[in-house]
């Protein structure tokens, strides 16, 4: 791995780039105290910001609830127009938003641009959806009757998002919620306030341009107390939260206790099965991007490689060789493939996990060292052979560690694959159709995402995104995930001139 951390942009330079990008999108920063914008590239503070309080949360929800009263009856294609304009503004400011993501989340340029592309894509999809909010017509058992399903806006949607996809996950929720007739209150990660301000400002501009009610969207820059106020507010009909399983374990029951709905996107522990027939020209890039890309900080990051014993040495050698060529350093530099970890806590978690693995008999085959001497946390992605799926492997460590496990039979591979508490993303590399189909079958992968001959990360927005078990069960973005943002009414319509009771009941 090549250490490119010697020539990093300094904090003054990053602050200037951030302020330039914010100015271009027309956003201003609420100066004050309580929150700070920082960059993982230097580990230093860029700007001090005013944090919203629990009272501000209450006010934002008040306003969003009021806006809902008119937004819910606005025709869906008119609501779609707001999202269409947002998509246009995102195209116009693609580079500005990507700059902010690189500065605040440390993503390399190509991935930062990709995140904004994902926002544009969901806007396009949501605009189409705005003319497609369909319901079923269902056969009635009674003559002259019809059953129908209608879908109505739900109310205020609270969105709590994480640092690693600081803007795209907001847009999955917001673009879809808005066309569904909901209004949105967003509490982004405290680690990424600037990109949140910029994205929210673009939506405000789209609101101004289309004449939508101003409070269809509210941004809250708040810490934990602000998030808790949103979780506990009974007017928040749906709380969509992305983050750790630990966070979801708190949020889920609290929202349920007030009979609210929650949509949870929590931890993953994603694996790829590499079979003897796998085409290694396809497998290798798939593995390396999924495991080392985004410095291992996607919820879909590949964390476990389950390789057939016959090909394990070759696969490990080739992944190690590919790792040796990864440049780690300045995410603005086009040659860099691995940017910084988000903070010191992530570095500590990585180091602790590697120590635990060594104690379990694991062997570090490549990487694992800290690079550079500045305040940013740069690490070499680690490749670790493990004698078995020990406790540390079964936990999600949000850092670039790829655990390698070996198997002999296909059944053993699937059993190992599913023997973790999380269930987000999975894949199999094989040229054997039977193996591929078995991996996708009911007794194959137990994840919300199961792929063949591609890695675990980088899902398109057209499909539903989410996972099972401790990943929380929520589904966002494409397919019919919009239904989570609406309420269903079942209608029975009698168009005859007789009264007929269901189940043949006679009365009067
Ligand atoms: C996340 O890491 O929270 O599939 C979302 C992917 C991206 C989304 C990741 N489209 O990797």
Short précis:
The protein is α/β, with parallel strands linked by helices.
Q: Tags for this entry?
A:
508 residues; alpha/beta; Aldehyde Dehydrogenase, Chain A, domain 1; Aldehyde Dehydrogenase, Chain A, domain 2; 2 domains; seven-stranded mixed sheet; five-stranded parallel sheet; 15 helices; 25 strands; globular; binds 2-aminohexanedioic acid; Aldehyde_DH_dom; NAD; Ald_DH_CS_GLU; ALDH7A1-like; aldehyde dehydrogenase (NAD(+))
Q: Your description of this structure?
A:
- It is a single chain.
- With 508 residues, the chain is α/β, with parallel strands linked by helices.
- It folds into two domains: 9-266 and 472-488, Aldehyde Dehydrogenase, Chain A, domain 1 (3-Layer(aba) Sandwich); 270-465, Aldehyde Dehydrogenase, Chain A, domain 2.
- It has helices at residues 11-25, 54-71, 76-92, 94-105, 109-129, 168-179, 193-210, 224-232, 245-257, 280-292, 309-324, 344-359, 391-394, 410-418, 433-440, and strands at residues 2-4, 34-39, 44-50, 137-138, 145-153, 156-160, 183-187, 217-219, 236-242, 261-265, 270-274, 302-308, 327-329, 363-366, 370-371, 378-379, 382-385, 401-407, 422-423, 425-429, 449-452, 464-465, 468-469, 476-477, 486-494.
- The strands form eight sheets. It has a seven-stranded mixed beta sheet, with helices on both faces. A five-stranded parallel beta sheet has the order 8-7-6-9-10, sandwiched between helices.
- Helix 6 (168-179) links the parallel strand 6 and strand 7.
- Helix 1 packs parallel to helix 7 (193-210), helix 3 packs across helix 7 (193-210) and helix 4 (94-105) crosses helix 5 (109-129).
- It holds the Pfam family Aldedh.
- It is an enzyme of class 1 (oxidoreductase).
- Homotetramer.
């Amino acid at each position: 791995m090549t250490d490119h951390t010697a020539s990093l942009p300094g904090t003054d330079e990053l602050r200037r780039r951030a302020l330039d990008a914010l100015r271009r999108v027309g956003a201003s920063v609420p100066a004050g105290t309580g929150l700070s914008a920082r960059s993982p590239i230097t580990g230093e503070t860029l700007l001090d910001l005013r944090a919203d309080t629990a009272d501000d949360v209450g006010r934002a929800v008040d306003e969003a609830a009021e806006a809902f009263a008119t937004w819910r009856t606005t025709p869906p294609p008119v609501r779609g127009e707001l999202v269409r304009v947002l998509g246009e503004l995102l195209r116009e400011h693609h580079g500005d938003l990507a700059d902010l993501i690189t500065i605040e989340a440390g993503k390399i340029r190509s991935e930062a641009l990709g995140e904004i592309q994902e926002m544009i894509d969901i806007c396009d999809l949501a605009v189409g959806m705005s003319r497609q909010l369909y319901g079923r017509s269902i056969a009635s058992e009674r003559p002259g009757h019809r059953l129908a399903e209608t879908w109505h806006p739900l109310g205020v949607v609270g969105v709590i998002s994480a640092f690693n996809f600081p803007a795209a996950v907001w847009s999955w929720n917001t673009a879809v919620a808005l066309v569904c007739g909901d209004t949105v209150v967003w509490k982004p990660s405290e680690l990424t306030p600037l990109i949140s301000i910029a994205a929210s400002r673009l939506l405000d501009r789209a609101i101004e341009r289309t004449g939508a009610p101003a409070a269809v969207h509210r941004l809250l820059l708040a810490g934990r107390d602000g998030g808790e106020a949103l979780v506990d507010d009974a007017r928040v009909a749906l709380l969509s939260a992305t983050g750790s399983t630990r966070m979801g374990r708190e949020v889920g029951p609290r929202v349920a206790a007030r009979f609210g709905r929650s949509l949870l996107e929590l931890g993953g522990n994603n694996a790829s099965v590499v079979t003897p027939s796998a085409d290694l020209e396809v497998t290798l890039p798939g593995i390396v991007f999924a495991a080392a890309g985004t410095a291992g900080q996607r919820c879909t990051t590949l964390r476990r490689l389950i390789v057939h014993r016959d090909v394990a040495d070759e696969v490990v050698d080739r992944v190690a060789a590919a790792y040796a060529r990864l440049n780690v350093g300045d995410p603005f530099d086009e040659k860099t493939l691995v940017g910084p970890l988000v903070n010191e806590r992530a570095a500590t978690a990585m180091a602790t996990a590697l120590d635990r693995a060594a104690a379990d008999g694991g062997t570090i085959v490549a990487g694992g060292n800290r690079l550079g001497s500045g305040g940013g946390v740069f690490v070499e992605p680690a490749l670790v052979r493990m004698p078995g799926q020990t406790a540390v492997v079964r936990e999600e460590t949000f850092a670039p560690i790829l655990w390698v496990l070996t198997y002999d039979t296909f059944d053993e591979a699937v059993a190992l694959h599913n023997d973790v508490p999380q269930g987000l993303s999975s894949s199999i590399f094989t040229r054997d159709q039977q193996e591929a189909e078995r991996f996708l079958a009911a007794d194959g992968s137990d994840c919300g995402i199961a792929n063949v001959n591609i890695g675990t990360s980088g899902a398109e927005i057209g499909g539903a995104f989410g996972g099972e078990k401790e990943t929380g069960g929520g589904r966002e973005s494409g397919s019919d995930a919009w239904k989570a943002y609406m309420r269903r009414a079942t209608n029975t319509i009698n168009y005859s001139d007789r009264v007929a009771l269901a189940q043949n009941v006679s009365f009067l």
